[in-house]
Structure formats: structure tokens, C-alpha cells
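JOB MANIFEST
job_type = single_chain_structure
chain_count = 1
residues = 209
[input]
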Amino acid sequence: MSRNASVVAGAVVAALLVSGCAAQGGRSDRAGSSGQSTGGTADTPRPSAVTAEPSQRTSSAGRRTADVTAHDLLTAVSPGCAYESERMVGGQVPGAITAYVRHEPGHPWSPVYLDMAALGYRQALSVFVCGGESMDPDRLMLTGAGGELIDSLVLGGSGEAPYSDVRSMEPVGNSVRVTWVASGAAGKDPVEHAGTVRYEDGNLTYTED
């Protein structure tokens, strides 16, 4: 009887030990599963929030800067002239007598859109007209992303011919061919000019034909 009791007791202890080991193994599997879930699996709500951030970083890093448009020129930064350089409203410098960008399409002097500064998107080269008590010579302004002013260039402005009027602009590769007229007051003694505008070493340059 005592031997039978010992056998039964041993069997009970063995059964309890086996049951305890199996229970510990189940907790480990659930813990591992839980760890995988918080690590970013795609089929649970929490990981989707985690994977959104790297997706945004990749999108931001790979997104191409948008080309400049005529609409961007309406609020672009103006070059300095008789007035300080500032953001335009509706294509004009606020409060100025005459300070505006020629942004309308369809004219020989309309803005030209090209990657002039090799930035990976199209900038805009446009004509800026300015004058206070008297008119200044026309300026060319190169506008980049966000309407920021990259550079500007004054055409003419000599003592004998202080005024200039851009007649046409045409893209040629990453440069622009420009025709313009220099003159004295009231258009006196007009002189026609033609040349090429380039963006070199961080500046707009003009070379006469």
C-alpha cells in the first residue's frame, strides 16, 4: 500500500511539473507575438502609425520641387529698384507707383520657364518694370521655388540711354536670348540690342551679340 501511494504521489508531481512547463512556454509565445506586433506589422492599427513616418521621409526626400508658374510670380519677391525688394501682391510691389512683373503669357516679352540655375526644376526669367519719379531701365528677375528671388539683372542704364525696354525673350538651352531697346527720355535716340542672358557662378550675366 505504501509503495502504491508513493507511485501515485510521484505521478501527480510529474504531472504538475509537466503542466507548469507547458504554461510557461505559452506565455513566451504570446510575449514574442506581442513584440512582433509593436515592431511594425502591417495588419494592426498601431504599426500603421509607426510606418507612416519613414514613408513621409522617403516621400519628402524624393519629391521633385514644383516648377515655377505665372501664378507664383504674382507673389514673388521683387528685385530692388526705386523701392526695396519685397513680396509682391497681385504682381505689384505694394504702395509703389510703378513696380510690377510682366507675368502675362502670350507676348514676346512674357516670362520664360527653364532650369536656368540647374536646380532640378524650372525657374522663371521675367521682366520687372520699375519707376519712381522717373522710369528705371527694365530688369530681368530670376524667380525660384516659393517665389524667392535668385538674382536680377539691369539692362542698359547708361548716361546717354538711361532707359531700356525688353522686346522679346526666347529660351535657348539653359540660357535666354533677349532683344531690347535702349533710349533717352521719351524714347529719344533708340538703339536696338540683342544678346544672351545666362546664370553663371551665382549671378545673371548678359553677353551682347
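[summary]
Helices lie at 2-38, 45-62, 70-73.
The first strand starts at residue 98 and ends at 102.
exit_status = 0
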